[in-house]
Amino acid sequence: MNLRYLSGVAICLLAIFISATSGQSDTTTVGRGPRRGTAGRNGWVGRQQLDDALRRIGVGPGVSGGAGNPSERRNLTEFLQILNNRRPAPATAAPVTGAPVTPEPVTGAPVDNGNAGTQLTAETLAEIRQELEVFFQDTSRIPKYVQMGFHVCVGGCDGCLNLADDSNKGLVVHYNHLKDNLFPKWRNHLSLADYAVLSAYEAFKAGVQANTGCDGGQCSIDLPFTSGRRTCANPESPPTNTVFPKGHDAASPRTFLQQGFGLTENEMVALLGSHSLGRAHVDVSGFNGPWDLTPRVVDNGYFSALARVEWTQHFQEEAGANQWNGTTLSGSNIMMLHADMILQHRFTVDSNNVASCPTTVDCPLATTSDTVQRFAQSNDAFISTLGRAVVKMCNTANFDTARRQLFN
Q: What is the pLDDT confidence band of residue 6, given thresholds at 50, 70 and 90?
């Protein structure tokens, strides 16, 4: 069974409709719904395995405590070690010989596209990362490659995009460049699926490092990398049965992100904060405007805007749906979608996409507003939580267990 699972608005985020610009603003991340992995599937890391691994380090479903809980601040490497069923990795990674579940044959399972036989080494991984670090010195690339990483991950991190889908139309040039120009040099060391995730990781890092508002100055993010993802059978003709959600949906991102990727509520909120990277474009989604005033930078400006700006509902004719418009203290115009605003305020949406309160002054606070406020006050809290969310999501994948390796 290779049908992709979709339960609602996907991540990072609603900007499936959004396209980066070359000037002051860029696009954010995205999503489409994930295909569920199940126990016994050939290499799939699924919900049950995620939940079991998370509970064992004290951060999974049913475990009390928020992002401030010491157990939830543990290094993501421990999470991945448990997920990969192995002891802590040495300085140079070794192949993982065990699998979380007993593999069973799966008809139509994705094949490995790349990996002609050479195992990825820590030294080669460092070379790839260095090359990507130089690549993202052009910061206009950051939003698109973050967005692309999420687009290929929803559905199993298989490295493939259906470029005929309108939701991917802003990614065509960037995906083809990754697939045809960046990846081939390294195809004997890792799969296209791995390379797409790694490029998203490095784009994220570049966006975070552009943020100098953390304790001690420049921010950083912890994204341990696991190799061995399988690429879809034919990247030139990828699956076309994925249905993309609409950006004006309100509550479904909560269910999708938490159940689809095993995220905590705090991690779900942080992942939506990736909107900080960019803006919506009328010619792509019908919506218009930036989420905050710092495009190409991963920072807490999104949460500051949610918490501190007075918002008014506005019908966006091009989208045929409502967005929320606000004005900052400096007089700049910014926007939010229903799925953003519901993190801070509680409301319902009718069949015409109209929220039950016309302005946020009329809306009571949502249960997640405390998390929004905490992230608005601390880049460190936001970015550390975001790192956990990104790594969890990108490790819900179909792995080739013979090539799966964890790198610190």
A: very low
